[in-house]
Each structure stands twice: as structure tokens, then as C-alpha cells.
Design goal:
The chain is mostly helical and 53 residues long. Helix content is 57%, strand content 0%. It is flat and about 35 Å long. The N and C termini lie far apart (29 Å).
């Protein structure tokens, strides 16, 4: 499956993992809709950091 950015989920974009890119894209969409994007993104980043620890 190829995403809109033309990368497959197993590719790395430098420091940007597909999960991070997806989270940022979700945050941008939420901001465009006038919603607070930070709650879910902060939770997701915290979860990623806990998983890496």
C-alpha cells in the first residue's frame, strides 16, 4: 500500500517514521477543522516514547 506521500509503511523518511507523519497529518487536518490537534498527538508521541523506553 502506498500512501499519499508515495512511501510504503516500512520506509523511513529520515527521522520521520510513517507513524509520526500520519500523526502530523492528522494534527494538520484537525487544525484546519478548528479542533485542538494536540491532545491525541501528545498521547501518541508519549506512547511511542514509552514503547521505545
Amino acid at each position: 500500500m502506498v500512501h499519499a506521500l508515495g512511501v510504503t509503511p516500512d520506509q523511513k523518511l529520515g527521522p520521520f517514521t510513517p507513524q509520526l507523519v500520519a500523526g502530523l497529518m492528522r494534527a494538520i487536518i484537525l487544525m484546519e477543522n478548528g479542533e485542538n490537534p494536540y491532545g491525541p498527538l501528545v498521547d501518541e508521541v508519549a506512547g511511542v516514547q514509552e514503547a521505545a523506553a
